[in-house]
Design brief:
The chain is an all-alpha fold. The protein has a single domain, classed as Amino acid/polyamine transporter I (Up-down Bundle), CATH 1.20.1740. Helix content is about 75%, strand content about 0%. It contains 20 helices and two strands. It has a two-stranded antiparallel ribbon with strand order 1-2. The radius of gyration is 22 Å and the shape is globular. Belongs to the alanine or glycine:cation symporter (AGCS) (TC 2.A.25) family. It is a multi-pass membrane protein. One of its GO terms (molecular function) is amino acid:sodium symporter activity.
Length: about 500
């Protein structure tokens, strides 16, 4: 097992060093400048579109999930292990400087997130529950490369509903075991069984049930965790200036903890950042495409806001919890244990129980979000109901097994698969980015005219492969045209 873990670690590190990180950085910078820094310039629009009206069908029912529900589905996947255990791992390996690179890559990645989620909306398709789409769909319909879409879909299925869900389940199990002192051997088995049952109850209900659970759980747990973090920062407020100083000064490899070089610090910051906020990874477009909105750019903006919510709020509060409470990182443990120790040292043992509850609910919601990404891609490969049923059973089994598996091997395997998935998606969005830039111009032109933007494929007849967006009535639902000019 150790030999396998070493091989996976080496191969994953090579892939990230020589392929993923350079492509991620260069494309992110290209998207940033070509779009006029859309990820910063349109922040007010991100908040406006988050609560946008959901178009209805002829019977007055929502065409699909709302913009906010799509946001919570993607946030369910984003906000979880990566924000708590992942940030702890990044700091333990790369020191405070890794946080700087997580912030930097989140800002640059915001442009990539905008492009991929806009494309996900543009090339979405209808299904029995509303809409579905994502990278596999824009590879087939936008690039006319179904083979590429199938390869991506297979990698995503290995990455999210299998590897990442194992990791989420493993972290829940480790956190609850830690609350018992780590000495009760039956706890992981019980946790795995409970998680498997809860997961099956939700995922067999379809995307609308997943959206309902995510909409209820994610904002509440994220808010409680943020309040908890602010209390700890308040207790150690005198250390906060030193924390900010260490984040910026140690980002350049002068006082790193274990990483050894600036390259290692950037690497771990980028890896843990992408695992957490998923910008450019190709996962969030699967959630974004499920939303019923009147213009593809709206979900591009909403999902970019999701990157900021994840990294600049939730990940940052974890970093501050760890750094203000653990000034000496020389012998710090990696992962969730580092965050747990920081909480207990600041608030007492009761906070470990509260963290267990937060981790359970956030990681469980991540399991649901990750599952939905897999479902969308399973249906891309084969839409037969029996295939989806088998897939759901496999996901439930993976959740159970992940609760009792080795954490190191799961982390390193997830990193490697995530790198492959990111590369495929980055190539696709690089080739299709011209479509996203045209959609952005169309959106801004309509906003300047005082309209709530509505897109139909007749507005861009030169772009082939668009499956929905037939006409204004089908896009907006039965909404009077006069109402468009009043919703600004």
């Amino acid at each position: 097992m150790d030999a396998l873990n070493d091989f996976v670690t080496t191969a994953g590190g090579t892939l990230w060093s020589w392929a993923v990180l350079p492509v991620l950085l260069l494309l992110g910078l290209y998207f940033t400048f070509r779009s006029g820094v859309v990820q910063f310039r349109l922040i007010p629009e991100m908040f406006r579109t988050l609560t946008d009206r959901t178009p209805t069908d002829a019977e007055g029912r929502p065409q699909s999930v709302s913009a906010f529900q799509a946001f919570t589905i993607s946030a369910a996947s984003r906000v979880g292990v990566g924000n708590i255990a992942g940030v702890g791992t990044a700091i333990a390996i790369g020191g405070p400087g890794a946080v700087f690179w997580m912030w930097t890559m989140a800002f640059i990645g915001g442009a990539s997130s905008f492009i991929e989620s806009t494309l996900g909306q543009a090339f979405k398709v209808r299904d029995s529950e509303g809409f579905r789409g994502g990278p596999a769909y824009y590879m087939q319909h936008g690039l006319k490369a179904r083979w590429m879409g199938i390869v991506f879909a297979c990698v995503l299925i290995l990455c999210f509903p299998l590897s990442f869900n194992s990791l989420q389940a493993n972290t829940i199990s480790a956190t609850i075991s830690g609350s018992f002192g780590g000495t009760v051997t039956w706890v992981p088995w019980v946790v795995g069984g409970v998680l498997a049952v809860l997961t099956s109850l939700v995922i067999f209900g379809g995307v609308r049930r997943i959206a309902s659970v995510s909409q209820a759980v994610v904002p509440l747990m994220a808010l409680i965790y943020l309040i908890l973090g602010l209390v700890i920062v308040g207790i150690h407020i005198d250390r906060l200036p030193d924390v900010f100083l260490s984040i910026y000064t140690q980002a350049w490899g002068t006082q790193e903890v274990v990483g050894g070089t600036i390259g290692a610090i950037i690497m771990v910051g980028a890896q843990r950042g992408m695992f957490s906020n998923e910008a450019g990874l190709g996962s969030a477009p699967n959630a974004g495409a499920s939303a019923a909105v009147t213009h593809p750019v709206k979900q591009g903006l909403v999902q970019t806001l999701g990157v900021y919510f994840d990294t600049f709020l939730v990940c940052s509060i974890t970093a501050f919890i760890v750094l203000v409470a653990t000034p000496d990182l020389a012998s710090a443990e990696r992962g969730i244990v580092l965050t747990q120790n920081a909480l207990v040292s600041s608030l007492g043992s009761w906070s470990n129980v509260l963290l267990s509850v937060i981790i359970f609910l956030l990681a469980f919601s991540s399991i649901l979000g990750n599952y939905y990404y897999g479902e969308s891609n399973i249906e891309f490969i084969n839409a037969k109901p029996v295939v989806l049923t088998v897939f759901r059973i496999v996901v439930v089994m993976v959740v159970f097994l992940g609760s009792i598996a080795s954490a190191d091997l799961i982390w390193n395997t997830a990193d490697g698969i995530m790198g492959i998935m990111a590369l495929i998606n980055l190539v696709a969005i690089g080739l299709l980015s011209g479509v996203a830039f045209k959609l952005l111009r169309d959106y801004l032109d309509q906003r300047r005219a005082g309209l709530d933007p509505v897109f139909t494929r007749a507005r861009m007849p030169e772009v082939t492969g668009i499956q929905c967006w037939e006409d204004e009535l089908s896009v907006t639902g039965p909404v009077p045209v006069a109402e468009r000019s009043s919703r600004r």
